[in-house]
Amino acid sequence: MNNVNKNKSKKSEKLSSINIANIRFNDGFWNQRIQLVRNEVIPYQWKALNDQIPDVEKSHAIENFRIAAGIVDSKFYGKVFQDSDVAKWLEAVSYILEYKKNPELENIANEVIDLITKAQQSDGYLNTYFTVVKPGKRWTNVRDCHELYCAGHMIEAAVAYYQATGKRKLLDVICKLADHIDSIFGPEEGKKRGYPGHSEIELALVKLFKVTKNEKYLKLSKFFIDERGQQPHFFDIEAVERGESEKKHYVFNLFDYSYNQSHVPVREQSVAVGHAVRAMYLYCGMADIAIETSDEELRDACKRLWENVTKRQMYITGGIGSSAYGEAFTFDYDLPNDTAYTETCAAIGLVFWAHRMLHLEINAKYADIMERTLYNGVLSGISLDGKKYFYVNPLEVWPESCDKRYDKKHIETTRQQWFGCACCPPNIARLIDSIGKYVYSKGNNEVYLHLYTDSIAEFNLLDQKVTITQNTNYPWDEEVNISINCEKPVEFTFGIRIPGWCKNAVLSVNGKALDLSTALEKGYAKIDRVWNNDDRVKLFLSMPVERIDANPELRNNSGKIAIQRGPVIYCLEEVDNGTNLPDIILPARSELNAEYDKKLLGGVVTITGDALKTDLTLWKGDLYKPIDIEYNTEKIKIKAVPYYTWSNRKPGEMLVWIREGC
Ligand SMILES: [Zn+2]
After folding, report:
1. CA of 424 to the centre of ligand 1 (A)
2. Most-buried pick from 120, 286, 400, 497 (CB within 10 A)?
């Protein structure tokens, strides 16, 4: 009995995440980062939101709520979406509270919630910009003014706070806001057939539906999804009602509704276009509706868009949105390394979307991208001390060119303490401290393990408590030891992800090796058996240093390779390798060695090897000369560090894609 399921293929049930409260992190990679968010990032960002950090761009976000609440008489300051910074921070706080009680932090959160409550208008409306600055102009420009976007973030915060504390105050405020929005927008006579210029509320309303069970919120989300891009175009109608020409003045001087993905109805979309963060949040909402309503047409649209993003328009780091102009996708295979936009929020959005795609259709290809993006394009957005942030995450940096060239002025060469547009810092905080949601998914009698991390998780399966413990120093070590504990024997399917990057994985159950050629189903080794207390699963994931080639269509990477070990992408930094990094040639036969350095950059595996660099003394100052028969190169040692750790030491150059030689 209890043998591995070899041929039986059961239809998967609806999957869900486990609660943050049900997973504890031990002393591993993600625990370090969760502790950083709890101890450093949240208090730091609270100061930033209250303008208590000297010499940084002003936030004014909390003050705006005080003004809207009538507590102080002052002027609104900031972007039209400034409220969303407070909402995302509050959501991040909620995840901390769900993980562990913290009365001091909860008191601060309650004060913020009181402020939000006072800033709400009697009809449920909640937005400090319009309340303070343009009270008569509510809902007149949902294309550009982010009212629905801010509402979405408020809803996410309220749902998270309710789930963490059981307290309804903010949830009630937010239901009143959602009811107000429902009275304004919808297909019914007299309502606006509008939808947000910046998606976000769609996914938030599905969260609200899940906690309240109120179908109205699901229906409104579906309306926003399906109305997008229909003709006559709502943004034209709205512009005319504002007294503007319908085709005049659009953001970034573009007049193209692909910017906010409203160029055609979403069900007809196959190629990711426009503002990358908007696209990610929209696709999340589409996936949510597809899951909740079993909508196959919408699921197919999500799958088409997924294939386009991840096979045509994504950097090796999981960064997306290659153009600063419009913060946007451009076209297939256009992925320049040194002008990339790759906003931290867009990578975060890709993680959100990948997680939903897993629940739409269990397949490790989604978890592979989720992992790639987490360890690389997301984590590069925050410094190791948690107090500095990148908005833009390029894959090649020459600081002087970023300082002096107009077309690189979006690139900061060191992380910043805060931003006038501070969407990324609280976004990364809420993702890191909710990472527990991304480790497993469960159905009634199946559990999927997506992310390897030292942790203990509790599940209720078939009315029984099951504990799954992972012991590992992943992503640095190749071994993951898993133990299953249960009071009585319990039968369930345990799907263990075998990462796509891993060419040699070995899995055993209680010492007996599993034949992965038969047990692997859509990237998961599926073990269907009766589990007994203290059953052991051992996983070995071979992590040789890999040279990664790029599709020849990626012309910016022609003749170059990137270094990857496990899920981690590496880069060269000036501090280790000198200047003019693009001149370095890594011979194909040069051996690359991986070594853990616990003192460097919080503890990382570094990669070292022999490489070549031009001997400049032979150039005598010439700008051009005929090539010599002899190579004018000298041998050097290179040292690569994880991409996410760059710019935590001395400022300088950085390079991911390295010239390959023979
Ligand atoms: Zn951002």
Report:
1. 4
2. 286
